[in-house]
Specification:
D-Maltodextrin-Binding Protein, domain 2, seven-stranded mixed beta sheet, alpha/beta, 11 helices, two-stranded antiparallel ribbon, 13 strands, Arc Repressor Mutant, subunit A, about 25% strand, single chain, 3 domains, about 300 residues
């Protein structure tokens, strides 16, 4: 029996949480995966997994061996990537995570072009505003909108976005136009749930940094939901220009208090820290950097 096949089956069972899930991931039968793990345990002379009718758990030996196996399999993947790089043709699946609104508005139109250029690559795209653990959840690449991508990750800055305070003309006609941050406390606020400073909005104005405590009437974990409510005249939003840039240009939304600016945030392609970045991931990072060399939302705004 191929030792690497045994280890791959064992690691996949642990990561999937079941033999059935591992069989689906590996494209093998459940019986084959069970046999691989059983033969591995027999060859090592230790039990790696505790099996019950409801769940699997690692023994102490299994936990240690699982970590070493993952390292060995990652090294094998890197070796294959080096050979592929010499061939000059990226091959394989790339699992990508990106924020929902940015993924729909600005990444979705790019994927077809990337696949045309790299026909042997398969993209698996997951959109979520939740910060995923790339290593734990098996992602090859993530697009992060943050000024600090994370000390345990490496990456490349693709572009930046400016947070814009804005509202619809209909709302301003009914409720008035705020001219200073302190006035926002009396306005209807539509807030993004994952905003880093919570219910405190911070700006830099003529007199320096200033902050205001807001009282939102709506929280949403997606920027497009806030935008839709603002377009309906429901309140004031603080959203990135990659979401509201076109609305500002068309006059559907109006920027408020332009003398008081919110933050600019970097947009990064990040990936787990590895000595050798697979060619397929490197090609995708280069492609995204090229695509966002002139960010479309900045042209629109």
């Amino acid at each position: 029996m191929d030792r690497f096949q045994e280890m791959a089956s064992f690691v996949t069972v642990v990561d999937a949480g079941s033999f059935v899930g591992a069989a689906e991931a590996l494209g093998l039968s459940k019986a084959a995966v069970s046999r691989h793990v059983a033969e591995l345990e027999q060859r090592l002379g230790v039990r790696l997994l505790q099996r019950t009718t409801r769940r699997l758990s690692l023994t102490a030996e299994g936990e240690q061996f699982h970590a070493r196996c993952k390292d060995l399999l990652a090294t094998l993947d890197e070796a294959e990537a080096e050979v592929t790089a010499r061939r000059g043709e990226p091959v394989g699946r790339i699992k990508v995570n990106a924020p929902l609104s940015f993924g729909v508005l600005h990444l979705a139109p790019l994927w077809g072009r990337f696949i045309e250029r790299n026909p042997k690559v398969v993209l698996e795209i997951t959109l979520s505003d939740r910060i995923v653990d790339l290593v734990e959840e098996g992602y090859d690449l993530a697009v992060r909108i943050a000024n600090m991508p994370g000390s345990n990750l490496v990456g490349r800055r693709l572009a930046e976005t400016r947070m814009v305070l804005c509202a619809a003309p209909e709302y301003l006609a009914r409720h008035g136009t705020p001219t200073r941050p302190a006035e926002l406390a009396a306005h209807r606020i539509l807030a993004y749930s994952y905003w880093s400073t919570g219910d405190e909005w911070r700006f830099t104005g003529p007199e320096g940094p200033v902050s205001v405590r807001i009282r939102p009437l709506l929280y949403a974990n997606n920027g497009d939901t806030c935008r839709a409510a603002a377009l309906d005249g429901q309140g004031v939003i603080l959203q990135p220009d990659f979401i509201v840039g076109e609305d500002l240009r068309a006059g559907r939304l109006v920027e408020l208090m332009p003398a008081y600016r919110s933050i600019r945030i970097g947009i990064h392609a990040v990936y787990p820290s590895r000595k050798h970045l697979p060619l397929k991931v490197r090609r995708l990072v280069d492609f995204l950097a090229e695509a966002f060399a002139e960010p479309p939302w900045q042209r629109a705004a």
